[in-house]
Each structure stands twice: as C-alpha cells, then as structure tokens.
Design goal:
The complex is a heterodimer of chains A (501) and B (433). Chain A has 501 residues and is an alpha+beta fold. Chain A has helices at residues 19-22, 41-50, 73-78, 83-86, 91-95, 101-107, 138-145, 148-153, 262-272, 277-288, 329-333, 346-355, 392-395, 417-429, 490-500; strands spanning 30-38, 65-71, 120-121, 127-133, 154-161, 181-182, 201-202, 223-224, 235-237, 240-245, 251-260, 380-381, 384-386, 406-413, 459-460, 468-469, 477-487. In chain A, strand 15 and strand 16 (468-469) form a beta hairpin. The N and C termini of chain A lie far apart (53 Å). Chain B is α+β, with helices and mostly antiparallel strands and 433 residues long. Chain B contains 13 helices and 13 strands. Chain B has helices at 18-26, 90-109, 121-127, 144-168, 173-189, 203-244, 254-262, 282-301, 338-348, 350-357, 377-387, 403-417, 422-432, and strands at 4-12, 29-31, 33-35, 50-58, 79-87, 134-137, 269-277, 314-322, 327-335, 366-367, 371-372, 388-389, 393-396. The chains are: A alpha+beta (501), B alpha+beta (433). Chains A and B meet through helix 5, helix 6, helix 12 and helix 14 of A and helix 4, helix 7, helix 9, strand 11 and helix 11 of B.
C-alpha cells in the first residue's frame, strides 16, 4: 500500500475541448449526424479552419446551436495527415470497428449484427458532423454549417436525423440515468487501493487523451515528433517537451446505429405475461433493471461518490439477483462493483481479500468477485434516438408498424479496448457474465452463440431458488452500422485543417 | 484424489521446415487455433485423461532486449512446443498417445531436428520433456471424467427441476431435493448418468503431501536468522537493481495484435502462450527461482480450490525455466477475452505478477518487488502482448465450460449427495441448478 508516484494534475483546458465531451447538449433537443467523405482536401481544410466548432468552455447560458466534428482514421489521412502523424492512435481506431473478425466476435457483431449486414460502415467515411439546435432551430443551423463551401469540400455519405425524446428511449424506458461524473478538477487522485467501494467519479483521463486516468497514468495519446509538418499549433506533450500532443483534450467516439424492434419487444413481453399489462411491464422492467420511469429495482441506498441521490445504489444487497436479475441490462452495463468485493474491515481484511481468502464468509458462495471493478470500464454516453415514437400499448397491437427506429448510440472514452470493447464483450455480450450461463444482455444481445455458447436466454432469480427462464428470446436490437471516430481538441482541429490546405 | 501430471515437449524445428510445420498444424484445427478433437494427426478427443493440450511455435520476439544490459543478444532457434495437462502420470499418457497416434505424432515431430523414421519417439519425447518450475491447477484432483459427468448431471437436473416444479410447485425445497435425488438414482441405475466416486487418497499420498506442506515453513523457520541478517543487504541490492533496470516497452505492432486476435475467443476459454528473457545475473535468477518455488508451493497447498489469489478464471497455468534459466515460458488457459484476463492481472494480482515477472527483461519498473510494475496498466499490457505467441493448435476437453461452470456443477453434485442444511442453504443450492 505504498504510494504510487503522482503525475502532475494538469488543469483540463475546456477551451481546447469539444463541448460534447463535457455536455450532452440536453437543451439542444434537435440533432442530426452526418457522415461524409472528403472530396477536396484543400477545401475541406479551409472549411474546418473556420468551422464554428463548439468548445467545452463554460458560458453564461447554454448556446442555441452546437457543432461537433469527429474523424475516422481514413478521414485523417484524407485530410492529408501522414502515417507518422496517425500511427500513434489506438490500434482499434486505426483498424476500425469492423476491421477484424476477432473484433466483431468480441463485440457480438455476429449473426444478424454482422458487419456484412450493416447498412453502413464508419470506416468508409471520413468525417462525422454533429449538429445540435434548440427546438425549431436545426433547419437554419444545418444550412449555415453545410454551406456551399462545405458542399464543395465534402460528399455526403449518410445522414442520421434524430427525434427529440425527453430522455425516453424507443422501448419506452427512461434512459441516460447513470452517467459517470468526470472529476474535471482532478481533485480525487485515484490511489490504487482507494476505491474498494463503487464510486461514480472517474478521472478525466478516462474520457480525454493525455490526462490522468484511473490508473494514475496519462491516457495514451498520439505524440508527434519534429518530422511532422505543421505540428506547432499543437500543445507540447507534458512529459516530453520535444513532442507535440495530437490527442490532447480529444476523445475516441464510438458510434453505433442500434435498430430497436419496439413491436417485437412488447409483443414478446405481452405473450410471456398472457396479455396482462401489469405483468408485461414488470417483465420488461426485470430485463432492463428499472421501471419505465427509471425507478431502480434496488431500493437500498448507499452513499456513492459523485452520484445523484436517486441513483445511489449498488447490487451488494442483492447478490442473488432476487430484486434485480443478475443479467438485467443495467446490471451488465454498469455492475457498480468496487476494487474489492464487499466491505472490507481494516488492513487485515484487505490483505485476506487480496490473497483470495475472504470468500468463505460469503453469503452466497460461488458468485463472489466475478465481475471486474467498474471504474476502469466506464463510458460517457451521448446517444440520441431516431424514428417515430411508439408506446407499449400501441406496440402490442397487431397493426403496429415496425418502423425503423432505435438508438444512435454514441459514447466517449480514452481507451477503446479497455472501456467500450470490454463493456460490450465481457458484460453485454458474454454468456458467462457474473457466473450466469446461456444468456447475454436481454435488450442488446444478438442471440447467436457467443464463443460456442448459447446466449439467447434470460433468467429471473427468485426467492424460492427456482429461476424463471425465458428461452429463446427473440432479438430486440440489431446493429445496423458503426464506426470508431476521433473527436479532436480544438488545437488539433486546426492542425488537421492545416494539412488539407 | 487423482494425481495429475503435465507434459511439455520442446524441440528445435529443423532448418527450413517451419512453414511446412505451420500448415500441418493448421490442418489440425477447426477455426484458427481451435483444435479439431478428431483431427487425423493427434485426435485429442480420444484421450479421456487429457484436460488441455497445445502445439505452438516458439518464436523469440524479444531476444534483442538483452542488449540493454550490454550483452550480445543471441537469437534462439525456432522451437515446437507440445504441452498439456493430464489425469494420472505423464509416462502413461505418452505411452497411450503412442499407441493411438504414433504416425500422426511422427508426422508432426519429423519437422524437428534429429527426428526421422527410425527414432524411438516415446523415448525422444521423454528426453525432450521439460519439467515446470511452477504449476497451477484450478481444482486439484478434478478429473476430465468428473467434469463431464458433473456437466451431464447439472444439465439433467436443470430439466428435471422444471418438471418437478411444474408438477409439485416450489413450496417445499426438501421435497424437491428428495425428488431430484430419486431421479438421479433412477438415471444412474439405468446407466444414463454416471457419478464415479473420487479416487481415494492413499495414506502414502497423504503423508507425502503433509511432509511437502510442512517442509517449506520448517526450512524457512530454521534458516530465518540467516534470512533476517541477509534481508537488509537483499533489499538494498534489490532497490539498486529496480532503479537501474531498463523498461523496454515498445507498442506491439498493430499487425501482431490483429494476428493474435485471429486465434482468440473461439471458445469461452483461451490459451495464453508467452516466452520472455530473465534479467541477466545471478541475483535476478535467484529471485525468479525463489518466486516460482513459492508460486508452486502455494498452488499445491494454498490455492488449487478454484482461486489463484483472487483470480477464478484460470484452469491451468505453468511456468517453465529454459535455456539454463535464461528464459521463462508462461502458458495458461483462462476464461474470457484477453482484455478481461489482463484486467484481472492488473487489478487483482499485480503484486503477484510483479513477484514473478519483474525478473523479466524490460518489465515495467517495480518497487520492493511487489509494488508498481503491473499496476502500470498500459506498460504491463505492452510487456505481456510483446511476449505473447499465437497458439496454433489448442485443445480443451470441455468446450463451453468455464472454471466457474465446473465449480458450480461440482457444488450441485455435492448438494445432491449431501443435502444442504436448512431451507436457505437448500434454496441456494436450487438456484445453482
């Protein structure tokens, strides 16, 4: 338990950071995402130089519009960046979300979710333009940003309109309740053994590159040596004065289009509960882990650092899953585990736990310490919904249209493998999560076997010890496309812009 | 308790035959790295005492790192490794292997130096077998047969429990237990289910185990005055080394990571194979030897009941000194993706890894042998991935089962054979089915 050497906690520069990292732009209820390719690098650079990209600076009042831009690896090259400028980016970003079969396997992008069936692949695009505006303002904002200058520089690949949703995702559940709180001020250095219990705070380096992360190290960032032209606009790398930091205050952005079969979801619930609307809602709530209005199925409260009062709970009081099923969506996506299982009593307790001897005192032997510590695997979510709205009551009717609707899932992280891919693999898609077997995430799961093991079940643990099994579950969510992007800091945007010209 | 053994046959690949050998190994698989249990050369599935086995080509990725110590790096020849874990002893298994697939083995090993049609392969394998320095078995004495029998039992009980609950409700756990016991008795009588009783531990085995258990503490106790005297010198020397040992942690080539990925996640369990150099000099060699002795001792007597410290996902793991302790091989079989595995390493047993691996050339710097090191997540992952090798052929006798699954199946059997005390414990038992 000796001290780990601290890296200096540099101030986070909000004026060099894109606004989306700090804000969800919740007041800007209208949004549209646009994928495009570079037609004319010089024109593209010129557009980017003057593009009104929104920073994370604190303003007196929220702005009326916002613009964020992110790039694929191919996009950076299309803007004229050389390989020695881009080679420092993370391997999954360079390779792309669908770049390797093994990655698709890990992400559960197989069967109906396989990239061969996608409507679009981010790797084929260069630039992601994200437009946000207040109610009624998007049309004008779109015209202003997608100016003739823009059209001369880029070809449009695909546009993703969104629908204002007041925080309710297409299945009808309140969404976006659990967000990690980023410790922008760096006031809580993560000492290695200081997070035995679950905390909702994460270090800035879990979201942006070049800052202190949960391991008390700088998050990996592409650093440029003197051979890269135009690098002077970039900040100096903090620990290597002869290098410049291209990633600083930037973030990796994961974008996935998740089509949601709303009629299919509610019809399954309806059939499984013999048409009783109360039981139907209860079953759906068990799969999600929350009631439709967002009320958690866990009622015991804990004081959790950086968490709002209404979301102060862990699963420690429900180790056997009787209140909230072990495989419920929110339990998989955010297991709320600390570094050590259960409360520790003093140094002896810590030592015994570290050596693996604390297990015998468990209430439920065998479900002990199976889930990784949550703080290393958090995501900042920034998704929006698309397609028409359908209430559960309407969805179960026979004439309900299976319209194209769903979630444009967007999340930000500093380490694609450790954060997004880990959550998607070990927690969402894994049929062996938390000692279960034969089931993946009841909402997001692809239902095809994962690593040779069935994943299309769902079990609800009961007080009498007899699980209620739902097998086979139909697939409710299908991946229609996705990509890994880099959301640069504002200085890095100017660096990229210079390369085009 | 059934005794278990390991084998590890290592031999240099003959000049210019590596490519041919690689495609031969490829022919033994269903998916990249995943062995076909019925493949024509070595049909692993026919050996009911074989838990896991693998063939892989040993390429020294990091042999040049020793240059940082001012030593002339010497390339290692490419080698073929064949290793596995068996119930019973190695000699019996190798003999049986020769009985069933001498031709296939000959075809594989004929790519190694000094093997031709006239070679007595059994003897050759024994000659090229390398004993490990430390070995970890998730659950000592649990046989392949037991794993299969208990998995079948759990699956049958899972279905039967639904029938019982449908017919009689779930109000009385004691009655449910009784009915399940009756059911299993019937199924066993009709030969559908088998539950072979565990092999008895003989008095001799017990005695040997006991002597082994107390010998280390006893010796340590006896030489403790000497150890105490030597401790300050040891610590000073250690800190000097730790301050000056270079970290060699380049980012692994993207193409290498992508290639390793091809072999991963075809089963819920994955193999890990790696080679690394030991830091030069007797001091580090001594620490590495002592650390592995300690690992081996604790794996025999303290762990081996489902947990290696806090890690529950490792089925088998092995550390082997090679080339006069200049190199160490580390092989393991773990559940989940490699990122989850490394997560366990970094977040749960960084101290334990440091104890062993910090004696490797290039390792992230440690303090007092257990601090630092693997706690530096990014650096540690680079260290590990740079030394990881693709496992061309990997076999596991029970695909789809994680260590946790097997433990649960054993718990189900235990509760069947001896009814858990009280309604609450009984409900817990039922929830496992």
């Amino acid at each position: 338990m000796s001290k780990t050497p601290n890296i200096p906690s540099d101030p986070v520069e909000f004026d060099d950071m894109q606004g989306l990292i700090r804000f969800g732009h919740g007041a800007l209820v209208e949004a549209e995402f646009i994928l495009c390719t570079v037609k004319d690098p010089a024109a593209a650079g010129e557009w980017l130089r003057t593009a009104p990209v929104t920073s994370a600076k604190t303003l007196d009042s929220p702005p009326d519009t916002a613009l964020q831009v992110a790039f694929t690896a191919a996009g950076l090259s299309a803007f004229g960046l050389s390989d020695n400028a881009t080679s420092g980016f993370a391997q999954p970003f360079l390779s792309g979300m669908a770049g390797e079969d093994s990655r698709s396997r890990r992400l559960g992008d197989t069967g109906q979710n396989a990239p061969e069936k996608w409507a679009w692949d981010g790797a084929n695009a260069h630039l992601l333009v994200m437009l946000y505006a207040r109610n009624g303002g998007l049309e004008d904002w779109r015209k202003e940003v997608l100016s003739p200058k823009f059209n001369a520089a880029f070809d449009l690949v695909q546009s993703f309109p969104t629908r204002p949703n007041e925080g309710i995702e297409p299945f009808g559940f309140r969404d976006g309740i659990s967000e990690p709180k980023v410790d922008w001020k760096n006031t809580h250095p993560p000492s290695k053994h200081g997070r035995e219990d679950y905390s909702n705070l994460i270090s800035p380096g879990e979201v942006i590159l070049g800052h202190r992360n949960e391991y008390n190290a700088r998050s990996a960032s592409p650093l440029l040596d003197a051979s890269v032209r135009g690098r002077d606009v970039l900040a100096q790398a903090p620990d290597a004065p002869d290098l410049r930091d291209l990633g600083r205050n930037g973030s990796y952005l994961v974008f996935r289009q998740l089509a949601q079969d709303v009629p299919g979801f509610w019809r399954y619930m309806d059939a499984a509960s013999e048409g009783d609307p109360t039981r139907r809602d209860a079953l759906a709530a068990k799969m999600v882990g929350r009631e439709r209005d967002g009320t958690s199925l866990i009622h015991g409260r804990h004081d959790i650092d950086g968490s709002p009062r209404s979301n102060d709970f862990t699963y420690e009081d429900d180790v056997n899953g009787v209140s909230c099923p072990l495989g419920a969506h929110i339990r998989r996506a955010n297991p709320r585990t600390g570094d050590h299982p259960h409360q520790l009593e003093g140094r002896i307790g810590w030592l015994l736990s570290t050596l693996g001897f604390r297990r015998r005192r468990d209430k439920l032997p065998g479900r002990h310490d199976l889930v990784a510590s949550t703080r290393f695997h958090r995501l900042v979510r920034r998704g929006r919904v698309y397609g028409p709205k359908l209430t559960p009551g309407d969805a179960v009717k026979n004439d309900a249209k299976t319209d194209d609707c769903g979630l444009l899932f967007i999340c930000l992280c500093a380490d694609l493998v450790r954060q997004f891919e880990f959550v998607q693999n070990a927690w969402i898609a894994s049929p062996k999560f938390n000692g279960l077997t034969g089931e993946a995430d009841p909402l997001l799961g692809g239902r095809t076997p994962v690593s040779g093991v069935a994943s299309d079940g769902f079990s609800i643990q009961k007080a009498d010890g007899i699980d209620e099994r739902h097998t086979p579950l139909p697939q409710f969510v299908t991946v229609k496309g996705g990509g890994y992007f880099f959301l640069p800091g504002l200085r890095a945007l100017q660096f990229i812009a210079r390369h085009g010209r | 308790m059934t005794q278990q053994d390991t084998f590890f046959i290592l031999a240099p690949v003959a000049e210019g035959r590596a490519e041919e050998l690689e495609s031969l190994l490829l022919g033994m698989t269903l998916k990249p790295g995943l062995a076909d249990p019925e493949n024509a050369l070595v049909p692993f599935g026919r050996f009911d005492q074989l838990h896991v086995a693998r063939f892989f080509l040993v390429e020294a990725n990091t042999w040049r790192d020793i240059e940082a110590y001012g030593q002339e790096p010497q390339p290692y020849p490419m080698q073929l490794a064949f290793l596995g874990d068996v119930d019973g002893d190695r000699q019996t298994f190798l003999k049986e292997l020769m009985v069933h697939c001498a031709d296939g083995l000959m075809e594989v090993f004929s790519h190694c130096e000094g093997v031709d049609q006239g070679t007595d392969l059994l003897r050759w394998m024994e000659d090229h077998n390398v004993r490990e320095s430390a070995n970890y078995i998730n659950t000592r004495g649990r046989t392949v047969r037991q794993v299969h029998e208990e998995a079948a039992l759990a699956a049958a009980l899972h279905d039967e429990l639904a029938n019982v609950v449908n017919a009689r409700g779930s109000a009385d756990p004691f009655e449910i237990h009784e009915r399940l016991v009756d059911y299993v008795r019937r199924e066993r009588a009709s030969g559908v289910l088998h539950l072979t009783p565990p092999a008895r531990t003989t008095l001799r085995e017990r005695l040997a185990n006991w002597i082994d258990l107390i010998s280390l503490p006893l010796i340590l106790l006896m030489i403790s005055p000497l150890l105490l005297l030597a401790l300050p010198f040891f610590v000073i020397r250690l800190r000097m080394h730790e301050r000056s040992d270079p970290e060699i942690l380049p980012r692994p080539a993207d193409a290498r990571i992508a290639d390793l990925g091809r072999y991963e996640d075809h089963d819920v369990t994955n193999p890990f194979s790696a080679f690394g150099d030991v830091k030069p000099g007797p001091f580090r060699r001594m620490i590495a030897t002592a650390a592995l002795y300690l690992v081996n001792y604790s794996a025999r007597h303290i762990f081996g009941r489902g947990y290696l410290t806090r890690v529950q996902t490792i089925h088998f793991a092995r550390w082997v000194f090679l080339d006069g302790k200049r190199r160490v091989m580390f092989c393991s079989n773990y559940d989940g993706a490699v990122e989850s595995y490394m997560d366990d390493f970094v977040n749960k047993v960084a101290w334990g890894l440091n104890l062993v691996f910090s004696n490797g050339v290039g390792y992230p710097s440690t303090r007092f042998l257990i601090k630092g090191g693997a706690e530096q997540e990014d650096k540690f992952k680079r260290y590990l991935r740079n030394r990881q090798l693709p496992t061309q052929v990997w076999y596991k006798a029970y695909p789809g089962l994680t260590a946790r699954d097997m433990a649960r199946n054993s718990e189900i059997r235990k509760g069947l054979e001896r009814r858990p005390d009280g309604a609450k414990a009984l409900r817990n038992w039922l929830s496992k089915i």
